[in-house]
Amino acid sequence: MMRLAAGALATLVLVGCASFSTDGGFGKVSELTKERTGQVVAVQRSQEDSDTARARVSELLKAPLTTDSAVQVALMNNRGLQAKFGELGIAETDLVRAGRLKNPSFSFGRLSGGGSVEIERAVIFDVLGLLTMPLAAEVGQGRFEQTQYQVAYEAVGLATDVRRAYFDAVAAQELVKFFQQVKETADVSNELAKRMLQAGNFGKLTQMREQAFYADATAQLARARHQATAEREKLTRLLGLSGDQLTFRLPERLPDLPKQPTEPQNAVQTAMDKRLDVLMAKRSTDATARSLGLTKATRLVNVLELGYQNKSESGSPRANGFEIELELPLFDFGSTRAARAEATYMQAVNRTAEVAVNAQSEVREAYSAYRTAFDLAKHYRDEVVPLRKRISEENLLRYNGMLISVFELLTDAREQVAGVTGYVQALRDFWVAETNLQTALTGRSPGASNVSQPAASAGTTPAQGH
Fold it and tell me: Which residues, 6 or more positions from 194, have their beta carbon under 8 angstroms from its beta carbon?
């Protein structure tokens, strides 16, 4: 029995060598994230890591942000994402623990009476844990890999949210300038209408219409300014900025519409191969299957511990032996655990199938929204804006020829601004739809990917005058 105990101790020493990886599993997370966002992620485990990230963020904020630099700032500076990275360390701790035996237990007893002393000693080892350790380690490895995908999933989701917020913030900032122009024309027309009413050259009703338009333009500008502030603050939160960092700059306008729309090849298959939620669902099902195997292996033997024991009594020679503790399956033969594991596995299979079906549908929907947004933005750029410009030029010629009044000229100027703001909104919708499409292909569910309607935003088409 001494040999058996010694063998158990030797095994304990060997399996106790399970240790932590050099990068904590973060290399896989960085690889998955960069493949889908083009940007690397950085975990901050020390003050030096934090200082390096802070310096890099400060450098990026010196220039107006681009979509890529905004994503890079968020991946380094968002504290919520850094908190998610902590889950990776927790998962690796569980993995290392699965590769190590439980600590042996030692018991000691002493009884005295009638002039004699009885002492019992025992060392207990978890033999069942040793027998099932390879399978337990395999299950732990699967859970660790699942956590790696989950953390990458969160990083890609943050990058997607940052891109959307970036385009919304730039568009809202740009729209403020156009609504300011509308307000300025409203100021001019309102003041001119008042003077002409005083001179007796204007009717009261016409003057009140100009005054009403002035009031609407004032309200629209106030709403647009607030919307620009709200969108900027939303982006600020995602970037994790505060203090002096709040002075970051955005470009004056959105990126131009590309010459041709993207035509993804084998889009559905790409989603099945690359989307993180699909890969996570598959690995979850695999992990459940491995857990089922572990349950079957231990369904009849729930507790099995082996130990060395000796007993000594005063006046008597020491007695040596061993002790085995075994739970007897008299009332529950493990069928309930096996049935529960099998039901859990089938549940995971069906959920994986649901994720796959939804992913395929979301890719088709995202591409439809992307093409619709591209066509609308192209229509505004090539048809609406040039047409409004030609009409404005023609009206200016007619005004110079004294064929139309100054009020008609001002009304036309407002309509031209309305066409430009419509293009800005359509261009914003395109870039958001492009982000949703890329996310649907390789990242995760993009959520609602419908092209937003201009009338639903703060930057609505300016009210028309008479």
Answer: 207, 211
